């Protein structure tokens, strides 16, 4: 392993983020400039893909065990620079260092690399009956194009990188323009131990970004982001019949049953909604609570929320930070204003300081809201939770299922079997019991309806980065 940067400042220098001629990237806590990034054009994209295509031919020849070793070496490299990476992530994305935030995210990158490296991909015997012998194995696709989001820029990018490389593909990563430095730094560290050109990252202009989805030498697109953009990518990819994995927006519902132990699970319930300030696709975004527990749940969530400090991500005591950008701040603010105007009850929050630096929106809990209000039926993607009262469980299930999204859902109950019965009726790619958004690199994850296409994680996710090859005889 070559020498790696040991400080946040050295890391910025290593990725060329000190050149003020580039596009400035701001800290959403302070509005100060974190660093600068160079935006690449179509010619630079084409040359990058050509390098990836050439490198993939040799990378595909590398044995599975050697690819596993490379992924573990990349994990070692990230661990060696974990603190500078977390410092950069906190400054650029806004999330605090502590809690389930920046240091957690860097650690998750390591976990996903090691778990993906450990997956075994042996040929499968399909038929062996004495007359027919058929096997199936998975071969690399070629070059993968990965388009990442700004909410978990390092971790979600790793969801794209790890299986792509493990399968024998090369990958070209396009980070979000809001959080490119974190991804550039992450891939810089990984490339200190990986073969040349199998992992390349570049922030592209609009023309080059569109070209990623239509490029004839890119065989698969992995995208995490909005449903609207996902639809455009899927349409564009059809021209060259690219494979796609789309992890799109959700508006996850949680249903509390009348036997739920509120005191035992109140903090877990809180983090299900407010993980990363609610800026998580599979966060709890609307909560249905029975009449018998309604006020108790409202009070318990308020009590927990009041204990969670919000502030500059670099503050060691903070566990909640700002919204990442002004666009998202306005979306959240408009939805909450509309809820307040409708007569909904504000339990806490809903009073941002518009003159303060940064994109801070206070932790907000909204009760007694119309179940058809935009704050309920549209994804807010911020630190706001609407709490909807119900008296009929069938009605609550129907409300949970009525939207054209289906990423995650949750059921909260002291009776696991009863919870599983309700979970079986929910229309979502994943349903958690007494938790929400607790993803695991061993367990496939993906959405249904307009929340996505394909799965990630585990052996099933890895297979989607390959093409099945069947041998008869």
Automatic annotation (TrEMBL):
<dbReference type="InterPro" id="IPR016160">
    <property type="entry name" value="Ald_DH_CS_CYS"/>
</dbReference>
<feature type="active site">
    <location>
        <position position="247"/>
    </location>
</feature>
<keyword id="KW-0560">Oxidoreductase</keyword>
<dbReference type="Pfam" id="PF00171">
    <property type="entry name" value="Aldedh"/>
</dbReference>
<dbReference type="GO" id="GO:0016620">
    <property type="term" value="F:oxidoreductase activity, acting on the aldehyde or oxo group of donors, NAD or NADP as acceptor"/>
</dbReference>
<dbReference type="InterPro" id="IPR016161">
    <property type="entry name" value="Ald_DH/histidinol_DH"/>
</dbReference>
<dbReference type="InterPro" id="IPR016163">
    <property type="entry name" value="Ald_DH_C"/>
</dbReference>
<dbReference type="InterPro" id="IPR044086">
    <property type="entry name" value="LUC3-like"/>
</dbReference>
<comment type="similarity">
    <text>Belongs to the aldehyde dehydrogenase family.</text>
</comment>
<dbReference type="InterPro" id="IPR029510">
    <property type="entry name" value="Ald_DH_CS_GLU"/>
</dbReference>
<dbReference type="InterPro" id="IPR016162">
    <property type="entry name" value="Ald_DH_N"/>
</dbReference>
<dbReference type="InterPro" id="IPR015590">
    <property type="entry name" value="Aldehyde_DH_dom"/>
</dbReference>
<protein>
    <submittedName>
        <fullName>Aldehyde dehydrogenase family protein</fullName>
    </submittedName>
</protein>
<feature type="domain" description="Aldehyde dehydrogenase">
    <location>
        <begin position="23"/>
        <end position="464"/>
    </location>
</feature>
């Amino acid at each position: 392993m070559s020498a790696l940067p040991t400080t946040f400042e050295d890391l910025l220098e290593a990725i060329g983020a000190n050149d003020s001629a580039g596009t400035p990237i701001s800290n959403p806590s302070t509005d100060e400039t974190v660093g600068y990034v160079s935006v690449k054009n179509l010619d630079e994209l084409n040359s990058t893909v050509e390098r990836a295509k050439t490198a993939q031919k040799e990378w595909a020849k590398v044995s599975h065990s050697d690819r596993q070793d490379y992924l573990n070496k990349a994990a070692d490299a990230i661990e060696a620079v974990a603190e500078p990476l977390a410092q950069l992530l906190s400054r650029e994305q806004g999330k605090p260092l502590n809690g389930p935030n920046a240091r957690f995210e860097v650690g998750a990158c390591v976990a996903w690399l090691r778990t993906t490296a450990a997956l075994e991909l042996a040929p499968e015997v399909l038929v062996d009956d004495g007359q027919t012998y058929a096997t199936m194995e998975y071969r690399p696709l070629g070059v993968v194009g990965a388009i990442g989001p700004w909410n978990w820029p390092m971790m979600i990018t790793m969801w794209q990188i790890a299986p792509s490389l493990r399968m024998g593909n090369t990958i070209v990563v396009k980070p979000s323009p809001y959080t490119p430095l974190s991804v550039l730094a992450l891939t810089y560290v990984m490339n200190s131990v990986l073969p040349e050109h199998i992992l390349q990252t570049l922030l592209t202009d609009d023309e080059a970004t569109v070209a990623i989805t239509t490029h004839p030498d890119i065989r698969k697109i992995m995208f995490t982001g909005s449903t609207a953009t996902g639809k455009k990518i899927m349409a564009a990819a059809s021209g060259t019949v690219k494979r796609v994995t789309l992890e799109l927006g959700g508006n996850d519902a949680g249903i509390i049953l009348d036997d739920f132990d509120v005191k035992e699970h109140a903090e877990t319930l809180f983090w299900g909604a407010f993980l990363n300030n609610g800026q998580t696709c599979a966060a709890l975004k609307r909560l249905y609570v029975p009449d018998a527990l309604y006020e108790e749940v409202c009070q318990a969530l308020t009590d927990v929320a009041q204990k969670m400090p919000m502030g500059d991500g670099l503050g060691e005591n903070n566990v909640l930070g700002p919204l990442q950008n002004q666009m998202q701040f306005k979306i959240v603010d408009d939805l909450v204003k509309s809820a307040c105007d409708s007569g909904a009850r504000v339990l806490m929050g809903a009073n941002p300081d518009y003159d303060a630096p940064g994109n801070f929106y206070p932790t907000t809990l909204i009760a007694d809201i119309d179940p058809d209000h935009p704050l309920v039926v549209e994804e807010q993607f911020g630190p706001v939770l609407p709490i909807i009262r119900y008296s009929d469980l069938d009605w609550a299930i129907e409300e949970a299922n009525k939207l054209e999204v289906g990423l995650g859902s949750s059921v909260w109950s002291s009776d696991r079997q009863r919870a599983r019965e309700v979970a079986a009726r929910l229309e979502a790619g994943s349903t958690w019991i007494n938790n929400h958004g607790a993803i695991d690199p061993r367990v496939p994850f993906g959405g249904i309806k307009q929340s996505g296409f394909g799965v990630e994680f585990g052996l099933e996710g890895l297979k989607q980065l390959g093409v099945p090859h069947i041998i008869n005889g």
